[in-house]
Amino acid sequence: MEKNSRKLSNPWLIILGTVLIQISAGSFYAWSIFNNGFMLKSGGTVQAVNGVKKIVGGLPAGSVSFTFTVGMLFLSLATLAGIPLAKKYGIKIISIFASIIYGLSILGLMLVGKNSSIWLLWLFGGVILGAMNGILYLTTLTNAIKWFPKRKGLISGVCVASYGLGSFIFKYIDMAIAGGAGAITAQNLDRVLFWWGTLALLLSVVGSFFLKNAPEDSASSLDTNNNSNNSIFIDKTNFTTSEMLHTSQAYLIFFCLITAVLF
User: Fold this and answer.
1) Where along the chain do its domains lie?
2) CA-to-CA distance for 213 and 241, rounded, in angstroms?
3) Using CA atoms, how far apart are residues 20 and 235, in angstroms rounded to an integer?
4) Is the dihedral of CA 166, 169, 175, 179 positive or negative?
5) N or C: which end of the chain has fewer CB within 10 A?
6) Which of 95, 78, 40, 69 is nearest to 213 (CA)?
7) So what CATH class is 2-226?
C-alpha cells in the first residue's frame, strides 16, 4: 500500500509545497518591524523626550509588541488541532483553509487605526494569525517528514530552515514595499500589510496544492524494522493528541511554552 501511495505522488513536489508554506508562515517572525507603524497609525506622534525621540500617544509600545506573544501562545495551542484536522479532512484542504484565513488576518490588521482598541490588534495579529501559523507550520512539517521516513533529519531541517528563512525574506520585502522611508510608518503601514498578506496568502495557497497526505504506515513500518527488538519503546513514543493530553509531560511542555512567551 505504501509503495502504491508513493507512486501516485512525487514526494519532492510535496516538499516544495511544504517549503513555500513554511516561508509564508515564517514571515510572522518579522513582526517587530511593524510595532512603530501600529503605534503611529493609532494616533502616536514622534516627540523628543529628554533628548531622545520617542513615539508618544497611540497604542502603548508594550501592548503592541505583546501581540507577537499572543500569537506565539495561540500558535502553540493550535498545533494540537492541526494534525487531527489534517487526518480527518486531508492536508491539502486544511492547508488551503488555514492559508486563506492566515492571509486575511494580515489584511485585517489594516483596520487598526486612530483610537482603535488594542484588542483588535491582538485578535487579528495574535489570536487568528498565530493559530493559523501553528496549523500551517506543524501539519505540513509532520506530513513532509512522513513522506521520507529514512531522511527525517534532512527533511525536518529543510522545512524548519525554510520557516526561519521566511522572516528574513519578508523583512526585506516589507521594507522594500515601505519605500524610501526605511521604516514602517503610519503612511505606508497599510500598503506593506496589504502586500505582506497578499504574498503570504498566495505563497501558502500555491504550496498547499502540492500537498498530499503521507501514507500512515510509512514511518511506523520503518521504525518497526529498525527497532524490532524494542516494541515497547515504539508503543510508548507514538501518541495521539488525546493520549498526549493525558500525560504529565505534555503539561510540563505547556508550562514551559507559556512562561517563555510571558517572560
Assistant:
1) 2-226, 228-263
2) 18
3) 34
4) negative
5) C
6) 95
7) mainly alpha
